[in-house]
Amino acid sequence: MSSLVPTNETDIPDPICAAAIDLALAAVIQDAGPEAVAGHIATRAEDDRLVSHRFRCTLTGYYGWEWQVTVVRAPRARAVTVDEVSLVPGPEALLAPSWVPWSERLEPGDLSPGSVAPTDPEDARLAPGWSGEDDLASELDPGPLHPVNWEPFLQRRRVPSAYGRASAANRWAKGPGGPNNAETRSAPGQCSSCGWLLTIGGPLGQSFGICTNRISSSDGQVVSFEHGCGAHSEAVTRTVHAGPPPAALDEVSVDDFDLGHS
Questions:
Q1: I need a labelling partner for 8 at 20 to 30 A (CA). Which of 56, 126, 127, 217 fits?
Q2: Which domains occur in the chain, in start order?
C-alpha cells in the first residue's frame, strides 16, 4: 500500500506529480525490466513540484532495497517528466559493511615483499626524534644522555611516543608472549627467572625481554616477564634408570645340596 510522506508540515507532495505513479513505474520497467519491480510503497515531496515515488525492488541480492523515481513539472505546467531513477536502501536493506581504509585493515603478516604501508605524519604512536633544536634541552639535563629524549640512531626523524610504547606493551601482553595463555599456566617457571631471557633496554625493558632458547616456541620473540613455557632454564627432569631391577639377596631360606657320601 502506497502512502504520502511529507518531510514536514509544509512539504506536501505536489498533487499532479504525486498522481504520476504509472509514469514512475514505467520508468523503472524501462530501466530494469518488469521482473525487477513490484508494488508502489510511498510518495515523498522533495521540493516544490518535485516528488519521489518508491517501489519495492525484487532483484536477487537486493532484499529490502527500493526503486526511487523522482518526477518534476515546470511552473504552471501540467506535464510531468521523469528526473531520475535510482536504487536506494530501505529500512531493512542488506548493506555492505562500512568502508575501512586499507591502512586500518592491515593485520600482521599481510605485507608481502615489495608492499609499502605509509605511516600517517600525525600518528600518535610516534614522537619527534633528535634534532638540533633539542640542544637547549641538553644543557638543562644533568644526566649522561643528551638531549633528554635521546634515542639510538640519531638520524631517525621520529621515535615511539609514550602512547606508542603503551600500545605496544598492551598488545604484547595480550599476545602469545604474554601471561594469559595455557602455555604459561602449565610452565614450570616464568621468564623473569629463566636464564634464556635476553634483557632489553629502554622503558619496555622493565616488563619485556627476548627469548633466546632455540627449542622454545618463543625463540627470537618478545616475551613478558610473566610469560613462561616448558623450556624454562631451571626446569628439573627426574632421571629414570632403564634396565632390569637389581638382584634381591635371599637371606632367609636355605637350599638343600646333595653332597653325597664317600
A1: 56
A2: 4-89 (3.10.450), 123-160 (no CATH), 164-224 (no CATH)
Matching residue, cell 632403564? 242
Query: Rounded distance, CA 43 to CA 7, Å?
Result: 11
CA distance 34 to 20: 18
CA 64 to chain centre: 29
In angstroms, rounded to a whole number, what is the distance separating the alpha carbons of residues 104 and 44?
39
Residues 50-87 have pLDDT tens digits of 999 999 999 998 999 999 999 999 998 999 999 999 99
Rounded distance between C-alpha atoms, residue 138 and residue 157, angstroms: 18
